[in-house]
Amino acid sequence: MKFNISFKKLISSIILGVIGGILFNYLNFPLAWMMGPMIFVTIGALSGLPVEMPNKLRSLFISILGVMLGSAFTPELLGQASQFGVAFIIQILYMFLAGLTAYIIFRILGKYDRVTSYFSCTPGGLSEMTLSGEHYGGDTRVISINHSVRILIIVTIIPFYFKFFEGIQVINDSESHSELWKFLDILLLSSCVLIGYPLANKLKLPAAPLIGPMIISALIHSLGFTEANVPDLLISISQLIVGTALGCRFTEKISLEEMIKIIFIAIISAISMISVAVLLTYISINFIPVNTTTLFLSIAPGGLAEMSLIALALGSGTAFVTVMHFFRVCIVMLFGAIIYKITLNKFNT
Fold it and tell me: Does the pLDDT value for residue 55 go beyond 80?
C-alpha cells in the first residue's frame, strides 16, 4: 500500500497515539484508545510536531470498526423501523436549529464570510463541507478546523459526562467481545471489509469505509451466519488509528493568534450545538420510544464513526445511533451545497 506521506510523520503520530492510549487506559478513562491518541496527537500537532495520518490507513481501520458496529444490528431492529420516521424528522429539525445557531455565531463573533460560515455550521460532513466550501470560495482552513474542533469537543465531553456525572458504565476494550474464531468466522468477517468497502465506494455511498463493511456485517450477523466479533486487540488498534487521525487534522499552517481565535469561536459553536441537542432531546423524547441517552447520541453533532463508538461503549442503541448519523451524513452530502446555492449564494459575500 503506497501512502503519499513521510514515514517519519506516520511513526511520530503513532508513537504519540500509543503514549496517549496507554496513559488514558491506565487512568481508566472512557474510550481510552480513541481519546488518548486524539488528545495527545492534537497537542503534538498544535505544537508543530510532524504528525499526519494516511487516509487509506484510516479508511482500512474504519472498515474494521464498521464490521464491529454491524454486529450490533439484530432482527429486532426491523421491528423498530416505525421509529425512524419521527426520528429522522427530529434529526432534520436539529440540523436546522444547530446549523442556524452556529452560522450566527460564525458571522457575528467570528466575522467570517457567508461561504465559510455556512460550510462550517453543518453538524456533520467534515470532508464534504470542506470541499464544497473550497469550491464556492470559502476559507478551507477555517472550515476544516471548525469541524475538527466540533468533533474533538463532542468526543471528549460526552463519554466523560456520562461516566462521571450520569454514572453510566463505559465499556472499554478489555470488556468487549473476545471469542475463539473458526476459519469460517475469519472468512466471513474479512469479506465484510474486502467486499463491503469497495462496493460502497463503487456505489458512492457516504462514509463508504464504515458503511459498506457495516451493512455486510449486519446482514451476516442478523441472518445468523456468525456470532463472532472483531478481536479486542484489533478494536483497540482501530480506535488508536481513528483517534490519531482526528488529532492530525490540526496541522494547518496558520499563525498562533489566528489559530487561537478560530479554535475559540469553534468551541463556542460546538457548545451551542450540544445545547441545542440537549434541549431538543428533552422536548422530543416523548415522541419516540428510545431512552434519553440514545436519542441524545443520535442527534449530538459528532462524526458518524465516533458517535457510533461512543454509543457502543455506553451500551446505548448502537444500531439506532449509527442509522441516525448515517441519515444525517446523507442529508449533508445530498442537500448541503444545494441549500447554499438556493439561499445564501443569492447574496454577495
Answer: yes
Q: Is-contact 76 86, C-beta < 8 A?
A: no
- CA 180 to chain centroid, in Å, comes to 30
Roughly how many angstroms between the first and final C-alpha of the chain, as a whole number?
A: 43
Domain boundaries, the chain: 11-48+55-171+178-346
* Contact in structure between 318 and 311 (CB atoms under 8 Å): yes
Which H or E run contains 298?
helix 292-299
DSSP states along 252-285: ----HHHHHHHHHHHHHHHHHHHHHHHHHHHHHG
Q: For residue range 264-297, list pLDDT tens digits in order.
A: 999 999 999 999 999 999 999 988 888 899 999 9
Q: Report phi then psi at 111, rounded to 5.
A: 55, 35
CB atoms within 10 A of CB 183: 7
CB 69 within 8 A of CB 310: no
With residue 168 as reference, give the H or E element that holds it.
Answer: none
CA 150 to chain centre: 10
Could you identify the residue written with the cell 491506565?
Answer: 26
Number of H helices, E strands in the chain: 15, 0
pTM: 0.80
Instruction: Read off the amino acid at residue 208.
Output: A
Q: What grid cell was written down for 261?
A: 481565535
All cell numbers assigned to 41: 496527537
The three cell numbers of residue 161 are 459526562
* Residue 263 · residue 252 · CB < 8 Å: no
What CATH architecture does domain 11-48+55-171+178-346 belong to? Up-down Bundle (1.20)
